[in-house]
Every structure is written in structure tokens, then in C-alpha cells.
Amino acid sequence: MARQRTCSASALAVALVVGVFASIPTEVQSIGVCNGMNGDNLPSRTDVVQFYQSKGIGAMRIYAPDPETLRALDGTGIDLIMDVGNEHLAALASGPDAASAWVRDNVLPYPGVHIKYIAAGNEVPDARSDTGSIIPAMQNLRDALSAAGRPDIKVSTAVKMSVLASSSPPSDGAFKDAYMADVCRLLANTGAPLLANVYPYFAYRDNPSDIPLSYATFQPGTTTVGDNNGLTYTNLFDAMVDALYTAMDKAGSPAVPIVISESGWPSDGGVGASIGNAQAYNQNLINHVGNGTPKKPGPLETYIFAMFNENLKEGDETEKHFGLFNGPDKSPAYPINFIN
User: How many CB atoms lie within 10 A of CB 272?
Assistant: First the structure.
């Protein structure tokens, strides 16, 4: 996760209109939760997996192959996003041997784990030397998985909103750099989704005077945002996701789906970070994702960040407070229901 901005204050202010809309869930929708491990007070890996099961959480994301977690996931049926780790991206891009070794060491020993996606990079920095590794790493991993008899595992990369040059209104969504069009074409050719980390919190934090809290947290209010294509937005999350969909349309890959690989709200440590706001955002997100977005109705696969507060997480103080639960006793940071 990294800081994100979307919807410039001036563009959003111009787009605000008055109205009242309700978000009505269309179906029961399970949700995934990211399993961050940057803490010295977290439950054991086995306890964490059992806790996912006890809460009915059907999907997990981990940010690097973790053998103990992978062993604990065996036979559970929990879907998994597994990151390769940005520090390994250049090596995986360098040639097929490194990718084959990675698959041999981190995938093949765990045939009972339902690895759904491998993320070749998470919010890779914009430097050309870094982003230039994404596509060859994805290609090498895809080829290695196919050669190993695991073509069912899709390879993607996780991006943040800063890959967009424009995001407000959503119909103006466009990628900032040409490499993203190449990423989308590869995803289209392989049937993989784009993984996107989408955080209305950071947009609200940076523009609290222009973005109403109710609009950022899915709560009923008088704020709606009209788009140039006739769609109307009652929450910032949908507007952000549809800006990404629009960018993919313009890049020539309209059929590529999006998976929300991270989204959340901190309960402490900064502007707008409170237990009440975090509970409102995350519960409303769970209740909402069965609807999809105005541009793409239908269930939207989504992973909340994160399962536990991480006391060793670097960065702003809020980074330590995105957890739904506390470790090691697994007490809730606030009440939450995972299936609406």
C-alpha cells in the first residue's frame, strides 16, 4: 500500500451535485482480506489461517511466498493472491530460468493451495528501470507456470491510482505511461485481471475540505458526482475504479476485469483516521462490492487491507492502523461482518 491521490479538488468541486441515493446490495458477496505480516505481536501463521476460516473469509493476499502460511492453507479452499516481492522482479524478468526456479520453489510444493493470482510487482515505482521489469517478469512467470502444469494460475501486477494521468471525472480516466497499455494487452491475451489498490482514504485525507466524508465512506448523504457519459456516482470508490476501467478502454483492453487487491481505511494515526470511519468504510465496502460499479455492474472481487494492525509497518502512523483485528489475541479493532 502507498499513498494515493485521485479526483483533484477543483474537478470534484465542479462535479458535485445534490441528490440522495442508497446503495442496495444485489447479492451475498464474500470478500478477501490481505494478510500483512509486518508486526512482532501477530498470531502464528496456522492460527491466522484458522481465523480466516472461522470468519468465513474465502480469500487471502500475502506479499511474499511464506512457507508456513502456504502449508497452513493446504486443503482449506481459500483463494490466494501471492506476490513475488518487488525486490525479485528484476531477476524474474531477466530470463526463464529464474521464473522456473521461483515456480518450482514456491508453487509446486503446495498443490493443495488454491493460488488464484500471482502479483508480479506491487505498486512498482515509476522509474523506467523498475516498470520495465513488469512485463517480462509476467511473461516468464506465465510460461513457467504453463510448463509446470499450472496454467490455471493467472499472473498480473498490482497498481495504485497514480498510474492514471487523469481520474476525474471517471470518463476522463487515462493511463499516464505507455507501459500500462502493454500490461493491459498482456492481461487480455492471458485472461488475467488487473490488480488495483484503491484507497478513497488517501484522496479524502489530502482534500478533506472538498471531498465529503460521507462520499468517501459509502454513507448516505447529499453528494453525488455526475460524469460526462451520463453515469452518476454516490461514492468515491466507484469513481476511482471506473476511472481505471475507462483507462483500460482507451488502452484497447476493455474486456480486462479488475480485482481490487487492496482497499481499506485506518482507525488511528491521521486525518480522518478513526474507529468509526474505518468501520463505516470497510463494512460499507463489503456490503457494496456485490453491486460492482456504475460502468461495470456485477460482483467485484475485493480484498480489504488488512487483517491485523501491523506495529512494525513503515511510513506514516496510519500505516500501522489499517487492521480489522489486533494481535496476538485476534480481538476486533471494531465490529465487522464479512458476508453481507
Answer: 19
- E-assigned strands of the chain? 16-18, 32-34, 59-62, 79-83, 114-122, 154-159, 164-166, 174-175, 194-197, 223-226, 232-233, 258-263, 302-304
Length of the chain: 340
* pLDDT computed for residue 305 by the predictor: 98
Q: Over range 166-183, report the average pLDDT.
A: 96
Is the Cβ–Cβ distance between 303 and 81 less than 8 Å? yes
Contacts of 206 (CB under 8 A, 6+ apart): 5
Instruction: Give Dmax (Cα) for the chain.
Output: 58
Contact predicate 7/203, CB 8 Å: yes
Could you give the CA distance from residue 304 to residue 287 in angstroms, rounded to a whole number? 12
Q: Model confidence over 117-160: pLDDT tens digits?
A: 999 999 999 877 789 999 999 999 999 999 999 999 999 999 99
- Round to whole Å and give the CA distance between 153 and 289: 23
- Provide the grid cell at 2: 502507498
DSSP string, 192-243: PPEEEE--HHHHHHH-TTTS-HHHHTT---SEEEE-TTS-EESSHHHHHHHH
Strand partners, 321: none
193 burial (CB, 10 Å; 0-12 / 13-18 / 19+) is middle
Report the catalytic residues. 123, 262
DSSP 3-state of 305: coil
pLDDT per residue as tens digits for the range 25-38: 333 346 999 999 99
Write out the E strands in 255-310.
258-263, 302-304
Residue with cell string 454516490: 234
Phi-psi region of 149 (alpha: psi -120 to 50; beta: other; left: phi over 0): left
Closest to 239 (Cα-Cα) out of 265, 203, 287: 203
